[in-house]
Amino acid sequence: MRHLLILGGGTAGTMMANKLAPVLDEQEWQMTIVDISEKHYYQPGFLFVPFGTYSLRDTVKPRRQYLPAGVKVVISGIDHIEPGRKEVVLSDLSTLKYDYLIIATGADIHPEQTEGLLDEEWGKSKFDFYTPRGTERLGQFLKGWQGGKLVVSITEMPIKCPVAPLEFLFLADAYFTKRGMRDKVDLHLVTPLSGAFTKPKASQVLGDFLERKKITVTPDFGLARVDSKEKKLVAWDDTEVGYDLLVSVPTNMGDACIERSGLGNELNFVPTDKETLLADGLENVFVIGDATNLPSSKAGSVTHFQSEILFENFLEHIEGRPMTARFDGHANCFIESGFGKGLLIDFNYLTEPLPGEFPLPGVGPFSLLKESSINHYGKLMFRWTYWNLLLRGIELPIGSAMSMAGKRA
Question: Could you tell me which residues are beta bridge partners of residue 227?
Answer without folding.
Answer: 232
